[in-house]
Design goal:
- This protein has about 70 residues and is mostly helical.
- It has one helix and no strands.
């Protein structure tokens, strides 16, 4: 292999590695976006659950008062 051919081979290898790394970066960016969407969805669900828990506690308190008063 001549020096020129060796350099061409090395350059192609570097470019292939850059392409692979670029694909990893794109996939990771997509994963980050997906995870952010999941976090937002989970945060909304947690918020709703907190409201539901508060409402259930209120119902429990009211039912306890009714039971004690009966």
């Amino acid at each position: 292999m001549t020096l020129v051919n060796a350099n061409v081979f090395a350059l192609r290898s570097v470019r292939n590695e850059q392409a692979v790394q670029g694909a990893y970066v794109q996939q990771n960016s997509a994963n980050v976006a997906l995870n952010r969407a999941r976090i937002a969805s989970n945060s909304a669900a947690i918020n709703q659950n907190s409201h539901d828990i508060a409402a259930n506690r209120k119902d429990i308190d009211e039912n306890s008062k009714r039971y004690q008063g009966a």
